[in-house]
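Re: the request from the purification team.
They wanted to know what the chain is likely to look like in 3D before they choose a buffer screen. I agreed to run a prediction and write the result into the notebook, where they can find it.
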Amino acid sequence: FGSGGQFLLTYALAEELVPEADREAVFENLIREFEKTGWHTVFGVVGLRRVFDVFDSFRRPGLAYRLFGVNDYPSPLNMLSGGRTTLTEGLDGSGSGCHCMFDSPDTFFFKTLGGIRINRKNDIPIEIRPYCPEDTDSVHCTQALKEGIVAVDWRRENGRIIFDIAVPDGIRAYASLHNGEKEYTSAVSGKLQVIL
């Protein structure tokens, strides 16, 4: 798509500029671009803001996790090194120090590891689909809604994954849980514990 590159491919997919028939091919090109750089980012915070959403839209949480795991320069995690709590304008720490473009990487923790996705336009507004990477033992994630707290906790114990989920009374949710081999899908109301 166009001249290629991480930013152009990411932005074209995020803004739905790519015809539906070509989206998968463009996405595969994006993956190849990341592989060329060893999963280092070669774009600024605008592209960073969108790439996690693109990985999520293609339901490839492992790619977002892989990108977030790179901690040397240039990478999202490196941008937060040295105790920074806000992003700089440049990948090298230069420019303005008050960019708010980390909102999409932050949502990675809620949408990917916690698996909490809220879409009030859907009949069932909450979807819970956590990603449980092999090298992570537990995740505790909460999100406040006007109806109450959505909470997802998962932990590994004795070769199994224990999922504890809570949704506010009166709101509909759907859970899709898996441990890599077994899967559990169900509507959720109130509290739920599943062991896979």
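For the purification team: The beta strands are 116-118, 126-128, 138-145, 148-157, 160-166, 173-178, 183-188, 191-195.
Please add any questions underneath this entry.
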